């Protein structure tokens, strides 16, 4: 065997301190910065662990001087040299290695680098497709390295916490039977069986339930999942979730486990203290108070019901809607030093509300001595005290009202106003605020299709008191469902599952799957349920999104090594791409190109 | 929220001891055994943690008695009762809970079970497809539960060991560009881009090399990999490997890391001591000594070169082969108490040798006072001492010889004889014997195609001394390749990689990939290599196979929760299966069914 001819590092670029003064070392890394002060070269050498300043002094021999002169940014090099303390005035307290430098004796160029397509640095607003095309350069940035380390630490901490509590990580297959419900399955054609396909799993849902039937008791998996959805902002074709299932549990067992898990993980990974339990809101309360089933609890601005006050007012628009059984709700925008509650600003709030179906946004301002002015204030004359008290408003605040026939639209429109206020008025606290949303409706009505469908998925247990009225009043049925919300994002969704064949079939039927179709699609689950399944339930936190929030980023692309872009393409390897005709022939496939419009 | 109505366990079926005498407990589990002694019922209740004996005494009330009477094997139940010590004569020291039993007060049936398709027990020779169809029942067996736990422990131990040594686990994409070389890629049609496909990765090879270019320095991943190979014995469409890559390393760094890793993991998971370093054999030595590049070192029976002796003998067949530059090698079968070296047995050894190309298997037996008898012994008259000394043979042993024109066939034929002797003569020690095979040839000649191809893969570094003769004498080039072998199985394969665009292109060209094809297939790797890649290398141990060996099984199906059968089908969910026409239409695909023959 032969060794390749390069001087191999004896330490990393993040390790050397004063204590190493005088040591002969070899460093391997990339030229991060390269300054030439006359005949002295200062080279910042970088690896994953840090940056060390390398100095080529003016006593350098010809060979060393030539090497130093030939260096360009991002060259990969090996430096042999001696550690020395920096002169006091040169000490850099910002750098881990800021007390020392390495006087170079030899520089070997391990590989070279042409001019960079963008500067490797954080916070630069490089166009994303360029970053993705040259992801290997982008990954050299401190930001990407830090975020992938955070992701690693987060997942490892989860694994160890669960493993210490008798959970087994079990790998479920990723080439499975296609059982599309909501989203589309990605398909994998079989070469051996013409016309037959495997599917990539949208989640290991059915397999983890079958593991429970198999007595595995406590299962988890950091699982790759796949959904062929239309490109939308932050969606990826493949994503990672913590998939988890437990036998013999009730809802609160799953909730407590998650509270313990994330309490431990946030402390271990980020030294952040979470409360021992997370706030629990019913779906109805979350909607009424925050207008959303994924409320951001890092700020207040709670929604208040003002229907009774509106009914007493002289505002006919409100009175009419209330008369027809509609809703009037309001939020109070607190006085701001930086944002002027101008007509223009109010219009921007109204625009946000209209996206969610509001017909308009009424407003009034709170003045001195509990007075109301502007907007619809004149209709509330004589009711100022009542209105101000209800809203908890103070001088300088502004009250914003939405009236709507439809409860959900009334709520969500005000949620949009609330979220915009949170951002614009700088109301959002730093930190991480978890909450549980519970008691979700089990079914949603599909207006287009004219049938009921599962709000979550078809395997979730209805709450016991609705078992007799599933078919007669599906809209009223609550399920043993729970969502975990963090800083306004849904980060996990779970439920207690059905473990009874007959109940499962009733749900399928309500969701428009007749027995034959259900048997064809989900027969293997129904079969398994005939063999004494245990009561069970689970949850599935999304890893990408949680790490994104922890890293204080707003795109999951920032916490995935090689994401696809928003067009579902990898600019680096150009996938998806055409394949050889031979490959298609072997798979018994012909491509039917759509006609050009 | 409503709670489902069942009594939830207060402990598991594997926990109770004498110390719990008198405690009221609830257990949840499955009826493992159910004996009825007159009016007393003994129910062995099982969960993942163990088995507890539940007793329904003759003082049971009507309801309890009725419940006990209705129980059948594998019913899922909740038992409320009181722990009591067993009478001394009933203590079962084989059971963790053998000192106690639970006197039942209440039994709830959580779910029922029809007659079982097979008995849930280990060692039963149930037909595999039946086990796989009802995998949820098979998973309830102690064996499957133990093996999946072993797999979990093994993988977790690996993760923690590597993470403590600065490795980051980074998830690479599984929907990538198709770059088939050896095996076929599985393809995933794109809905958005008619005629374009993603591929499932055969391994994260290119992405992990690109991570090195991205400065990630030390990477690993427990990675799902996919190969569309023809069904063959123990192959799975998807399998799991520990994928690992390091920057700035030489071969021995990777080898030492693996020795440390598996030393730690075998100790932690199985309390098994491995040596601090594993034996290293060059490919040439492994072939000459064991006839195989994955030798089982748990027994001796080494191959000896006897060409010089054969040349001096009077056996014209041997002399002829040697005269033409061929080879004569031999092994010594040690005297056995159980196996008679009959003609029939020798023929069975010969048959094994012939599979690998031997024309025949010559033999002679070692008698008293260093005598040789039978077979070809008469040709070695006068050379008995020399032959016996060379072979290290003793009275009762048998010497088996193969002569062949081709070195590899001579070696592998004797390897087959050696392996059969190992099994038949019970020579194989218990335990785990690792070794490294190094200094592999970089290229293999494809006789059919008439070109050279990579013996391992095209990204491996040739050893330095062959850099000038790559093109002129590819057959002689050794690579910086290494295989890890355990108990006669190849369990990992790795290499130092090429990190130079020009060298990489030379390899592509030798392997029959012209520059244009190489650019089209591997352009993104070549692009990355233009931007200062570090020297790097890695390895990829196969998880399924390693766990199989650790579990002393001979099929990887035993250590995978939901394997496909040998026909690449899942008997449980019937995948692959037909899909809706709508799904095919959306993917722009038409199936071209082959004509019936």
Structure explained in plain terms:
Two copies of one chain form a homodimer. With 597 residues, the first copy, chain A, is an alpha+beta fold. Chain A folds into three domains: 3-111, Nucleic acid-binding proteins (OB fold (Dihydrolipoamide Acetyltransferase, E2P), Beta Barrel), CATH 2.40.50.140; 145-281 and 435-559, 2-Layer Sandwich (BirA Bifunctional Protein, domain 2); 300-428, GAD-like domain (Gyrase A, domain 2, 2-Layer Sandwich). Helix content of chain A is 28%, strand content 24%. Chain A contains 16 helices and 23 strands. Chain A has an eight-stranded mixed sheet, with helices on both faces. In chain A, strand 20 and strand 21 (489-496) form a beta hairpin. The longest helix of chain A has 22 residues, at 142-163. Chain A is globular, with a radius of gyration of 30 Å. The mean pLDDT of chain A is 95. At the A-B interface, helix 3, helix 4, strand 6, strand 7 and strand 8 of A face helix 3, helix 4, strand 6, strand 7 and strand 8 of B. Strand 23 (589-591) of chain A pairs antiparallel with strand 23 of chain B.
Cα-based radius of gyration of chain A, to the nearest Å: 30 Å
Structural class per helix/strand content of chain A?
A: alpha+beta
The fold-level CATH name of the largest domain in chain A is: BirA Bifunctional Protein, domain 2
Domain count of chain A, please report it.
3
Tell me the overall shape of chain A.
globular
> What's the average pLDDT of chain A?
95
Question: Class of the largest domain in chain A in CATH?
Answer: Alpha Beta
What percentage of the residues of chain A does DSSP assign to strands (E)? 15-25%
* Distance between the ends of chain A: 61 Å
């Amino acid at each position: 065997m032969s060794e390749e001819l390069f001087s191999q590092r004896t330490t990393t670029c993040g390790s050397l301190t004063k204590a190493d003064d005088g040591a002969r070392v070899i460093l391997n890394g990339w030229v991060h910065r390269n300054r030439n002060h006359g005949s002295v070269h200062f080279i910042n050498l970088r690896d994953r662990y840090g940056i060390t300043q390398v100095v080529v002094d003016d006593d350098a021999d010809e060979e060393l001087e030539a090497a130093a002169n030939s260096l360009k940014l991002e060259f990969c090099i090996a430096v042999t040299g001696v550690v020395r303390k920096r002169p006091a005035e040169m000490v850099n307290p910002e750098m881990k290695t800021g007390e020392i430098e390495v006087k170079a004796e030899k520089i070997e160029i391990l590989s070279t680098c042409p001019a960079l397509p963008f500067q490797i640095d954080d916070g630069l607003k490089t166009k994303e497709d360029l970053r993705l095309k040259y992801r290997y350069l982008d990954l050299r940035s401190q930001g990407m390295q830090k975020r992938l380390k955070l992701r690693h630490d987060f997942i490892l901490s989860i694994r160890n916490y669960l493993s210490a509590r008798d959970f087994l990580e079990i790998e479920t297959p990723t080439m499975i039977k296609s059982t599309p419900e909501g989203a589309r399955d990605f398909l994998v054609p079989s070469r051996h069986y013409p016309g037959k396909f495997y599917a990539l799993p949208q989640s290991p849902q059915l397999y983890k339930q079958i593991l429970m039937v198999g007595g595995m008791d406590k299962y988890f998996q950091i699982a790759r999942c796949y959904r062929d959805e239309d490109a939308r902002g932050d969606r990826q074709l493949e994503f990672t979730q913590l998939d988890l299932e437990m036998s013999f549990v009730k809802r609160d067992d799953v909730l407590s486990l998650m509270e313990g898990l994330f309490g431990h993980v946030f402390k271990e990974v980020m030294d952040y203290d979470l409360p021992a339990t997370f706030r629990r809101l019913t779906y109805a309360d979350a909607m009424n108070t925050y207008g959303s089933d994924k409320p951001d609890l890092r700020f207040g601005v709670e929604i208040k019901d003002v229907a009774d006050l509106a009914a007493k007012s002289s505002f006919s628009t409100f009175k009419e809607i209330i008369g027809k059984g509609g809703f009037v709700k309001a939020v109070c925008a607190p006085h701001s030093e930086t944002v002027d509650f101008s007509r223009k600003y109010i219009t921007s709030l109204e625009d946000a509300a209209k996206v969610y179906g509001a017909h308009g946004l009424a407003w009034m301002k709170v003045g001195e001595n509990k007075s109301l002015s502007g907007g619809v204030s004149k209709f509330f004359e004589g009711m100022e005290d009542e209105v101000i008290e209800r809203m908890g408003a103070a001088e300088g605040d502004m009250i914003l009202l939405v009236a709507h026939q439809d409860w959900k639209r009334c709520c969500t429109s005000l949620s949009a106003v609330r979220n915009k206020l949170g951002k614009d008025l700088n109301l959002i606290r730093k930190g991480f605020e978890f909450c549980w949303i519970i008691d979700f409706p089990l079914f949603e009505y599909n207006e287009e299709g004219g049938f009921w469908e599962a709000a979550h998925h078809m395997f979730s247990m209805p709450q016991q008191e609705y078992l007799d009225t599933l078919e007669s009043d599906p809209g009223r049925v609550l399920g043993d469902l729970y969502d975990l919300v963090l800083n306004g994002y849904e980060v996990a969704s779970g439920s207690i599952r059905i473990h009874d064949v007959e109940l499962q079939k009733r749900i399928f039927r309500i969701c428009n799957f007749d027995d034959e179709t259900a048997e064809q699609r989900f027969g293997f689950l129904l079969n398994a349920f005939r063999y004494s399944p245990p009561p069970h339930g689970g949850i599935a936190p999304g890893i990408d999104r949680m790490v994104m929030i922890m890293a204080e980023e707003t795109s999951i692309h920032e916490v995935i090594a090689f994401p696809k872009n928003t067009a579902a393409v990898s600019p680096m390897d150009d996938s998806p791409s055409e394949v050889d005709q031979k490959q298609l022939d072997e798979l018994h496939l012909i491509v039917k190109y759509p006609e050009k419009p």
